Amino acid sequence: ASLKIYVFLNPNQALRLCLGSTAVGAQYGAISALSINNDCSRLLCGFAKGQITMWDLASGKLLRSITDAHPPGTAILHIKFTDDPTLAICNDSGGSVFELSFKRVMGVRTCESRCLFSGSKGEVCCIEPLHAKAELRDHPITQYSLLAMASLTKILVIGLKPSLKVWMTFPYGRMDPSSVPLLAWHFVAVQTAVNPVLAFCRGDVVHFLLVKRDDSGAIHVTKQKQLHLHYDLINFTWINSRTVVLLDSVEKLHVIDRQTQEELETVEISEVQLVYNSSHFKSLATGGNVSQALALVGEKACYQSISNCGGQIFYVGTKSVHVMTLRSWRERIDHLLKQECLNEALALAWSFHEGKAKAVVGLSGEEQKRKAVVADRMVEILIHYADRIMKKCPEQGKIQVMEQYFQDMVPVIVDYCLLLQRMDLLFSQMYDKMAENSVAKGVFLECLEPYIISDKLVGMTAQIMKDLLLHFQDKNLMANMEACIVHMDVTSLDIQQVVLMCWENHLYDAMIYVYNSGMNDFITPMEVRKCEAIDEQVIMGNKLLVYISCCLAGRAYPLGNISENLVPLVKNQVFEFLIRLHSAEAPVEEEVYPYVRTLLHFDTREFLNVLALTFEDFKNDKQAVEYQQRIVDILLKVMVENSDFTPSQVGCLFTFLARQLAKPNNTLFVNRTLFDQVLEFLCSPDDDSRHSERQQVLLELLQAGGIVQFEESRLIQMAEKAEFYQICEFMYEREHRYDKIIDCYLHDPLRKVRMRICKSNYIENLDEISFPFLSPFKAADLISIHFSDQIEQIIQNLEVKIAKRCYGRVNQDLLQLSPSVTEQFIELLCQYDPEQVLETLKFLESYRLEETIQIVQKKQLYEASSYLLEKKEDIHSAFLVMLEVWSILVFFPYNVGSVEVPSLKAIEDTLAKTIALCQRNSHKLNQQQREALWFPLLEAMMSPKRSSSSTVLGHYSEFLKNLTMQVLNNMAAFISLPLILQRILQDPVYGRGKLGEIQGLVLGMLDSFNYEQTLLETTTNLLNHDLHWSLRNLKASVTRGLNPKQDYCCICLQQYKRRQETSDQIIVFSCGHLYHSLCLMSKECGIESKGQIRWTCFKCSASHKGGKLSEASSELKRRTPTSSESLLDPQQAQAFDQLCRLYRGTSRLALLTELSRDRGGEKHGLLHVSQGDSALNSVFQNETFQLHLTPPPPLLDD
């Protein structure tokens, strides 16, 4: 209360103590702070007028009244007991912090005060000593009596014992000045150690600092993960090490899980009408002598109105006190049970069991103990769940409705019982309850299937297994039953009954599994009964092959492995079974080796593959060798001496034998005569049946290594006789007889259809097929035999192919050819691909100029001739060739009386190439030689105008005028303007008549001159202006002062004034960061070069990981003067870089350059010649672009 202290110690809120009186209240003012020590024997009270009192809570007596602990005229904002009952901390409205030491001397209680922090250095508005629970009192860090203090600018952590020492200083960043600083300690288990964590926040960010003590006794503070919020905080409270409760500025509570930063719940508490400490922070009781910043923080301060104890948070309102607490884990589960949310209750309980739940209260102890407590509670819920299922079962309606109901409910019970590993509960109480309803019983049994198949459910009772199999049999779910049987422990079942059921329902996998695992019998499953249905025979045969393969490889069927001590026995039993001479109860007419014979007839290839895999696993001992040889002998006896097998089956046998004989460690013996018999059998010319099959079988035999068993010459002879062209091809390839391979392709009847389709293309590609392999003589023989009627076409195609192939390899092969071969290649290229001649000549070097010029002139390739003449340095001849081409394009159609108009594009391109030729060579010619080039070109341009009666003018008048202007513009760079004008005026066409004929040409030349002069003057002015602007800004940047963002080092967080080392320097960067030079050197942020150290900002460079490191160097503000240099110092270099980044955009000089190249021709009506793709990206393609070249403003007369 404002004048008295009310203490409620009774749970029924009965008043037990009333401390103080109205007289004391009138003298001291309102109570502004309270604190109770650990054993609840003493109470400290701070008042608005600055007094402090201590009360005995047992007797209610006033023990001390302290009036001189801090400067008068300031209110007590905080008062806190430490873990030492004789030591307390107080904080007043002046921002100072004092230590209060309580002593008793000669029976007199005294109090000594010591100033820990003066408000003149920064006003402290929040303090929080570290308190440890009873079980943590022996923690090494408690001996330091740590105290956290929050001022308006930074956080400090100091140790009060054994001597006063500052352990950490952490400055704030930029934030709202009205936000409230908050501090809270809590011991948290991090990895294997328990250490205190300090949470401090101001505004919308919560920082967590881990405080640890090392072996040397020093304390280290480590930053942990931050918590970023979207609201401003006015209170922070720990509930436990994982859960915190936050109060925002609109009086809304937020329950947060610290590790995941997930918001668990939000509660509105505006109805509490929380009491704020604004009047105390403003020190209204003492005249309001506080700073404006502290008064602004006090608007939202509610430090003394919120307290927590034992997981409860107390909120003091204007009319009442509210207590908020988190429900315990049992209460949370019970709350869901009351709402009949059993599924949610089980899920929540399981999260408690696995330790994944958040904001857990009331569940402590070791992990196994916690799991046992939760498991017992889950069992109770499951029993209640089962009862509820049976009670709420729909009594009437369709059977489908009831099945759906139990399918939704029963799996939950099964899942959680198996998760808890309570098989006893599942198969006793739960199954008994489900058995009361036949539908529920069936759903329960079906729910067990996925757990049985995944081997998660073992140890079922015999009754459950029996009921499960009967249920599947009644439901005709044979596949499900078989899948379950192969995962069960069948020793507890009636094996005879299960085997009979498997035979009746054709469950071969289950039957084999029961015999193997139940009776260790691996032979009886192979003595199968005969099936009437063909499909059943196929299924059984395939399963038997896989089963035999597993047994011989030591694996169990259909899954798992055979016990190691049984593997040799099983292999021997299976081999003995396979090679039995007769079966049990065999009839008289039964042939020998019936089991091997049956398997070979069923699938020869797969049975032999099984044997091959088995031979791989055999150890190289005497018994294994005997078994292998015996099986091979039996296979030969059964298949070779019997005509029931097809050629394909016989071929599979000998392919198998060839593979075995080809092994390096082979010990088998097979008579080579048998291979010869097989060869004669497969290559028999009298048997035309299965020709392709026999050829494919023999080919596989040869590829498997059987070729070593035959005489190659005899093999080729028999293959040719049998028309086995693929066999012949295989043998010819081994002997590198490629001409014979092509004969095989042409004679093979299996490829005739393909050859008919490809025959026309074969001639085109003949050189590609033959030349890599054949000699010229064999290629000629092949063509003369098979393509005698098309020899001329083939020769012509070969010439074209050679030219194209040489051109395709010009980059790598032709550079090393002799001149004669190269010239021959160029001649072929002129004949078949003249468009590529010029590009090839530019690339090649190994040809003679005179001979090559004669070749291209003979083929009338004018551009190539001009290029070679220019390369020969006969510029005039090259020019005459190009001029001749141009004249032909202009006059040729009319000389022959044609009315066809030649391509304007061709004329324009030819003129452009001619101009380029003149421009390339004008620099190395004298004036007379230049005139010999340019004036004939100008003469050629004006000559069509002389034939005034010609129809040329009707089609080309304007076009030729533009071309003439283009020639004049280009020759003006090499020929003086008076000579050009004189030549034009002397021309008979322009020398008579009106001046209007040449007026356009002359005015165009003058306009070009004026435009270029204006462009030059404008460019000069812009360059001067840009240079002046750049130098002015550079000077302003490098001469401005530096303003540090803070007065402490950004690495050690110490104020720069604290450093007293003479070798230490203060370094300030242009980004505003301040460092000690020794701190920067420790972070390797200084590079010594040429006797000077080049510094980089630690923070800025760290924020650009792997990217563009801030190479901006620092401006050194040293305590000793330094000498200046003529070069730019690092600070000036940084300023210049900033200036360059600031002045971005298209260069004005570049704009004018582009304008002179592109815009000028359009402005003066000149013909525009495309200069490549760069014009497409020109800024002048934009319709909105305008360049205003206005004259300077006129000077005003005085």
Name a few traits of the molecule.
single chain; 1198 residues; alpha+beta; 31 strands; 47% helix; flat; disordered C terminus
Give a description of the structure.
The chain is an alpha+beta fold and 1198 residues long. Among the domains are: 117 residues; 95 residues, no CATH class; 111 residues. Helix content is 47%, strand content 15%. The strands form nine sheets. Strands 15, 16, 17, 18 and 19 form a five-stranded antiparallel β-sheet that branches. α15 runs parallel beside α18 and α18 packs parallel to α20. The chain is flat, with a radius of gyration of 52 Å.
Q: Strand content of the residues, in percent?
A: 5-15%
Q: Considering DSSP H and I runs of 4 or more, what fraction of the residues is helical?
A: 40-55%
The residue-averaged pLDDT reads: 78
Individual helix count: 44
The helix-and-strand class reads alpha+beta
Overall outline: flat
How many strand elements?
31
Largest sheet: 5 strands, antiparallel
End-to-end separation in angstroms reads: 86 Å
Low-confidence blocks of residues = 753-774, 809-814, 893-901, 948-952, 1104-1126, 1158-1198
Radius of gyration: 52 Å
Compact summary:
The chain is of the alpha+beta class and 1198 residues long. The chain is 47% helix and 15% strand. It contains 44 helices and 31 strands.
